[in-house]
Write a structure and sequence with these properties.
heterodimer, A: five-stranded antiparallel β-sheet, 25 strands, about 45% strand, disordered C terminus, B: about 0% strand
Chain lengths: ~375, ~210
């Protein structure tokens, strides 16, 4: 890779706020009730501290009516705004001049110039393994969106590159997209994107994350300017644990993926750097089901874990037992500038929910 | 539907259709007309939106190449050096494509495709080979490589990866050229056979003496 290596923004390592295991009863409904099926939330913090979330919603996952929705939570009242369509399938078709069958996994990021980027997975032929990544950006924090472009990331008909986790920020302004490949073989990669305004051919390089076949959906946490940990969803049938890979040279080389002690039912994980070398992980604590959503903390880059507790469990809430299969999945963790930690996740595919995990008055763990 | 998907479908459907047409005694003119139609579609698409048309799904062009390769077996069997050179270009494109696909799809070993990003050395090496090919009179090879370099320099391709510049458009164009050459060579051969038949018939007619004896 030519210009693919650079150091990234070091994380804020100031002391972490105390975590509180909030009750799911305190969670906010982000997605409203308009769409029967919602999934795969991502979120960013805007300039004034407002949170903006994105997810895909429609009659069911993979349906042609699925669109990318967005909603905001302004500082103050704990009410998310009415969801709006950010990107529709027809818009992606029109802008990219391609036939699009379905949309999925929106991932948002704000670059060093304050421009809001939105990456969206789309499929023209076949299943999710035939995905490609589309990109658009907004100069007004998500009110309007520029033309959508297709990122070319693969030589084989540019298919089978998907995204789930948040981009990392390189010091030169570029974004590092944690992507994964699904066709023939499953493995994670980082795609480096040029954020210079007006550039069309944005992909500057890609790096495979170690010997990590069988793992997908990397969530990368930079711990210093050159060290980072990638937490990985495992699709191995014989190693149902959250995996991780490390780099010590700014992403040039990654260690082979190794299992952690945390179980993983082939489900997405999310992480956040808490400061003081602590990393928080949201995951499903099971080898089989996504019927719980659990938090754990590591202080040694994933070698050992301390379980914080379950945010959501199989126990259904009163009046909400109409779901045949309980699912709390696809978590998204966001640390905002005020040091608060926000957890957003799919709730039974019916809602996107949001929990604030820190409070100023809490006892430090 | 994406224009490139239409083009692929046209190319895929073309072969059996042409075979059927030939078996039914249709003239090669129809076949040439079909090829011409495809080229026109490509050209119009290109003019309409240079980025998203021909390059709509980059590397799909390689499918066209692969199909053209299947059809171009006869080209390499000819003694004409130029036709052999086209086959060489096609084969080289195909080998590069297969290597890129294999490493990119499997995730095993070095990621060859990633070497195509911002790799000045690769571009320089291609330039050197292009000059060498020009000096050696390998014009098709040279044109192919210069085309790739021009795509890179003018930032014409949707992809920023040099491998795509090297393989995609040239392979698609080379594939089309291979098709046309193949069909023309078949037509020329057929015409030659026809003229031979006429010539031998004429010999029979113009040999009354022999007929009498």
């Amino acid at each position: 890779m030519g210009t693919g290596y650079a150091r990234w923004e070091a994380p804020d390592n100031s002391p972490a706020k105390a975590l509180r295991l909030s009750s799911p009863l305190e969670s906010l409904n982000v997605s409203g009730d308009a769409e029967p099926s919602v999934h795969a939330v991502s979120a960013v913090e805007l300039k004034n501290g407002t949170l903006r979330a994105f997810w895909f919603g429609g009659s069911r996952e993979g349906a042609s009516d699925v669109a990318i929705y967005t909603s905001t939570l302004a500082p103050g009242p704990n009410v998310w705004s009415e969801p709006e369509v950010a990107i529709s399938r027809s818009r992606v078709e029109r802008d990219t001049d391609r036939s699009i069958r379905k949309l999925g996994n929106p991932v948002a990021a704000i670059d060093s110039n304050g421009v809001l980027w939105l990456f969206v997975v789309s499929v023209s032929v076949g299943g999710w393994s035939g995905s490609a990544i589309n990109v658009t950006y907004s100069y007004n924090e998500g009110k309007t969106w520029e033309d959508i472009d297709r990122l070319v990331t693969s030589p084989f008909a540019n298919i089978s590159t998907l995204i789930k986790g948040p981009p990392i920020h390189y010091r030169d302004g570029a974004l590092g997209l944690p992507v994964y490949h699904e066709m023939v073989s499953k493995f994670p990669q980082i795609v480096r994107i040029d954020t210079f305004p007006g550039d069309r051919n944005r992909v500057e390089g890609r790096t495979t994350i170690g010997e990590s076949r069988g793992t997908i959906q990397p969530w990368i946490i930079p711990t210093t300017e050159s060290h980072a940990v990638a937490f990985l969803r495992s699709s191995h049938s014989n190693s149902k644990f959250v995996h991780l890979s490390e780099t010590k040279d700014g992403g040039k080389n990654w260690s082979p993926a190794r299992p952690t002690s945390l179980p993983n039912p082939n489900a997405s994980v999310a992480a956040a750097h808490l400061g003081e070398d602590k990393i928080l992980l949201a995951y499903n604590h099971s080898e089989k089901n996504r019927d719980n959503l659990t938090l754990a903390i590591t202080k040694d880059n994933g070698s050992s874990w301390e379980k914080v507790g379950a945010v959501e469990t199989k126990k259904r809430l009163e009046g909400e037992n109409e779901f045949r299969k309980v699912e709390y999945s696809y978590p998204w963790l966001l640390k905002t500038r005020d040091g608060d930690i926000h957890l957003l996740y799919t709730w039974n595919r019916a809602e996107i929910r949001h929990l604030r995990l820190t409070r100023k008055e809490e006892i430090t763990k | 539907m994406s224009i490139i998907i239409i083009i692929i479908i046209i190319f895929v459907l073309l072969a059996p259709c042409l075979g059927f047409a030939k078996s039914k005694g249709f003239s090669n003119r129809y076949i040439e007309a079909a090829i011409f139609l495809v080229i026109i579609v490509l050209a119009i698409s290109y003019l309409y939106e240079p980025v998203h048309a021909i390059f709509g799904e980059v590397s799909s062009c390689s499918f066209v190449l692969a199909f053209a390769l299947l059809q171009s077996k006869q080209i390499k069997q000819t003694d004409e050096p130029k036709k052999g050179e086209v086959a060489l270009v096609l084969r080289t494109c195909a080998i590069i494509a297969v290597l890129l696909y294999a490493s990119s799809l499997s995730g095993i070993g070095p990621d060859l495709y990633s070497l195509g990003y911002g790799n000045g050395l690769l571009v320089l090496a291609t330039g050197a080979v292009a000059i060498l090919a020009l000096v050696k009179g390998l014009n098709y090879l040279s044109i192919w490589l210069w085309l790739a370099l021009a795509i890179t320099a003018l930032n014409l391709h949707e992809s920023s990866n040099f491998w795509d510049h090297l393989v995609d458009l040239p392979s698609a164009l080379a594939g089309i050229v291979a098709w046309i050459m193949l069909l023309l060579s078949k037509k020329l051969k057929k015409d030659a056979d026809k003229s031979l038949e006429i010539s031998s018939d004429s010999d029979t007619i113009t040999s009354p003496t022999q007929a009498r004896t």
